Amino acid sequence: MARSRTLGEDFSFVNPVVKYLLFLFNMMFWTISLVMVAIGVYARVMKHAEAAMACLAVDPAILLIVVGALMFLITFCGCIGSLRENICLLQTFSVCLTLVFLLQLVAGVLGFVFSDKARSKVSEIIDSAIIHYRDDLDLQNLIDYGQKQFSCCGGISYKDWSHNMYFNCTLDNPSRERCSVPYSCCLRTTDKVINTMCGHGMQDLEYLAAEEYIYTNGCIDKLVNWIHSNLFLLGGVALGLAIPQLVGILLSQILINQIKDQIELQKYNSQHRADPWY
Questions:
Q1: Which residues neighbour 52 within 8 Å (Cβ) at sequence distance 6 or greater?
Q2: Which of 151, 137, 180, 169 is nearest to 50 (CA)?
Q3: What is the pTM of this model?
């Protein structure tokens, strides 16, 4: 009788493999979140005051800080909850991760169903980015990278750059870049000497004349075509994002149930010690 009682008191429903696997899982993403926040804060601090107030909605630094902070809070609950076997923190982690997963799923479905509205929203974001092109170095590098990668210029066409105050084609515009487009719009050449002024005055030209020097097609159509031709790749990326979230939710729920069973066992053992006939 004494032996069975001892085995019962030493037994634990909490599986250490599940517990520490969940802890390491959260610790990894917790570290990644700290790096994201640090990079975002550094990029934000290094900007000029004028640029820091411009175009917050599409600022990559702000996006890094927000996503990193949310990831930090969620994974912090998972880390401490698994290590301390705290049901409240584990449930918070599980619920938050489930909400994030569902929001991503809903956003994907809505983007597919309402593709026209999504396209319109993307167009607004690109127009806003073009307007603030010279105000934010990170945004400028991001736009230049996108135009080079997709071989495009502007949102709908290269003439969208007239929305920017420096590239505007109005006669009273004193900028040297008047009626021009950025160098990233220019066609790639094999010349050893790079002509960074190849986009000068391109908005004054018609499409057929301009396409000899720059990309005239807008980035929105190029982006849509790229998405259609890379659906399997995007599906793989979406699956790669979903699997860690589902694993985290599954492990947290398993650990929560194990902790609850352990609490019930401890209650039974304490009552058994107080009343041997229980």
A1: 44
A2: 137
A3: 0.74
